[in-house]
Please model this.
Amino acid sequence: MPATARVGRQGGDTLMAEVRMSRTTQGAGGKVRLSHRRKWLWIALSVAGLALLGAGALIGTAAYLAETLARVERVMPAETPASLGVAYESVRFPSRGDPLALDGWFIPAVVDAPAVVLVHGEKYHRADPTLKMLELAADLHAAGYNVLMFDLRGHGGSEGRFFSAGYYERRDVLGAVDYLGTRGFPPHRIVLLGFSLGASTVLMAAGEEPGLAALVIDSAFADINSMMHREAARRNRAARYLVPLLVWFTRLRYGYDIRDVKPLEAVATVQTPSLFIYGSEDRPAMVEDSHGLFSASGASAKELWGVSDAGHAKGYRTAPQEYVARVVSFMRRNVTSGLR
Model:
């Protein structure tokens, strides 16, 4: 075979080899690029999945918290005023503007004496033993006052399935005022005395019922939105992100905006004589709330009393004689009709 032919054949073989190598190299590069694309797609999907899981976990946690806050474990009163030798009547009346029926006790006294409505806090009932409400009612009755004790919605024997931090409960307090009206007590002969959540609820109810005789506000919170953020910050930094979701879920599930629970705004419009009470051993934030409410109060007459060595809403339990003496003295100086 001529040399030129051999050289040509060798050159062709070399060219074919180069073409095959080029294709192989291109294929490998394509596979590498495809592998990179798949890797980044997988990372993106993983991040999105984790984000969705995180969002779902936050929403689920917020929903759980909203349900937990709204849920009421009913506790029925184990004793009645009769346990202390005080005569009473079992009563039932509607919440104002709601079809809910509320259970209570009316302790009658002198006909022309004012009536004091006792409003309990969260979790218990009209005879809350942790606050000694039965003993307080007996002491106020002994001082000559009519007393109405009742269960807020969802508590004790009253109707209702959930708790709204005072938003709907204020209607229950107004229902108590309406009930006393049917017994001959006009607003100017009615005193509202509330504890903790009940105290905050009293302030919001008083904003809708001008002309009440007096208010006794024991350990109220000033603004629930601020309180939620404060509690979230105290417990966990990440918890503050749950508050907006909690607000959203509460509005969706229960039909109200929890940010509208603002006793601090209500108190500025209330001109009813008001006695503010707090325990010196309560949490600093709650002590600040009592001072803030007192300062913002638009009451025609107002007083602030810190009960030494008392915890949250434990003023009467800690110093019962002084508590009753101060409350009765305040009522007698500011209630225009009744006992003197």
